[in-house]
Amino acid sequence: MLWSLIQKNKNDIIYLSLLLFGVFIGPYYRKIQAVEAKKWGGTTIGLTLILVVSGYSAVHPILSASLGILAIKASTLKYCHIVTFFFMFGYLFFFRLADKFGFSLSSGHTNLIEMIIVLRVVGVAFEMNGSWLAMAKAKRKTDDVVEPVNKDERDDEFLELINPGTLDLFHYTFSYIGLLTGPYYRYRTFDDYFHLPFSKHVDCFSFTIHTLKMVPFYVALYLALSNVQPLEYLLTEHHRNRSFLLKIIYPWILFTAFRLRIYAGMSLAECVCTSAGLGAYPVQAKNRTGHGPTVGYLKLKQMSDDQARTSQYDFKTVESMDVVGCEAVVTLRDSMKVWNKAVQYWVAMVVYKRFPIKSLKIHAALFVSVIWHGLHAGYFFCIYFCPFYLMAEDIYYKLYYKDATGTKKKIIGFIMWFLRSNSESYQAAAFLLLTFDRIWIYYSSVYFYWYGVWLAFLIVGLILNHIDKANKRKKVAVDTKNVGLDN
């Protein structure tokens, strides 16, 4: 029984073992004093991990990253982000369609590494271009630093020119920290790790243990739930003949198992960062996932070693998952904010904020998110349905939940949580089944019920919202009339 369980989850066990290896070597890596030796050490470990995970397929992440770096350096700062974006996503298409060109397809774990490589190479190109635009706007041609007016106010997006050399781009791209599963972090965070004193003084062990202690719980629950019934059970005749209630409940189990698997992987990935000390900043900087400090960054860079020693730290910069939030938040909108936060930051920074057509920003962000995940129909069904559900959810949130209090708020909150969870499970079924034919088999077995529920949900919400606005207008008119009579 145990052996069959190990065989079934062999690839995941190997992958988790490599993440644990990254956690284990973190304290030793952190102690390396020489900056160049430390960079080369992280890069060597990263390349070794790619080779161990991917074998011959390692050529893809190594080649794509190397060519992407060359594309950055061969382009001007004005256009490097556009050239790099299209090249890296073009290679990602080739990588995933390799069998169409006579090459063998790579494993799922190599795909994860390639996805992280894309985030890093494209992300740093946008950092370079964004900082160049900010410096040009500030018209400080004689100085690479733009001093904020008030250091207690929120920092601008870019405060310095970011233009790393080819070798530094190479080290950033292939550093073992965050390479296997993320989280994504900016080049600025990577550079700060080597030149600022924070990693020397933060209590890395306590942060790592705090996150690591939950991983056995996630893994145990995942193994228990994943062995109840396999994903393929959704496609069987036996499943089609079960009661409608059981058929709509089953994706809840599948999605719960999926979340636990993600929680375990993401938690270990965060531990790789915390054990090495990468992403540690003083709490007064009001750090944000992916971005890092948002207040007083330039002042932090001037902090002395004695000040750094007495500072209080956090690792919010490399925090990917808010597990409690993922399970407890009431709305899908809030759920999206706490799920894989580092990647969402990348999508917002690279796509949403920079897309030139305002009305298409959300569609561009969703489209890039879909193709980054993969080329399967399931990703479109899952990710592209979110805005439609949000249309209805926002109405009910404003009408009934936002201003509610006490028991009423708890009851409405539970109903919205239940509907949100059901919607996510329904969408996750498509995400996991991947192909259109498999999705059709399951969705048709439950009569595409959630699309009907959503449509009714939206129509009723629009009617209620219209009635509420009409009542408010009448109330305003009556109040105005009464004021007139009083006068």
Automatic annotation (TrEMBL):
Gene Ontology CC: membrane; mitochondria-associated endoplasmic reticulum membrane contact site
Membrane topology of this protein: Multi-pass membrane protein
Major site of localization recorded for this protein: membrane
Sequence intervals crossing the membrane: 12-29, 49-72, 79-97, 117-135, 364-390, 440-464
One of the protein's GO biological processes: lipid modification
Lineage of source species: Eukaryota, Metazoa, Ecdysozoa, Arthropoda, Hexapoda
Keywords: Acyltransferase, Membrane, Transferase, Transmembrane, Transmembrane helix
Compartments reported by the entry: Membrane
Pathway assignment: Lipid metabolism; phospholipid metabolism; Phospholipid metabolism
Single GO MF descriptor: lysophospholipid acyltransferase activity
Family note: Belongs to the membrane-bound acyltransferase family.
Protein name: Lysophospholipid acyltransferase 7
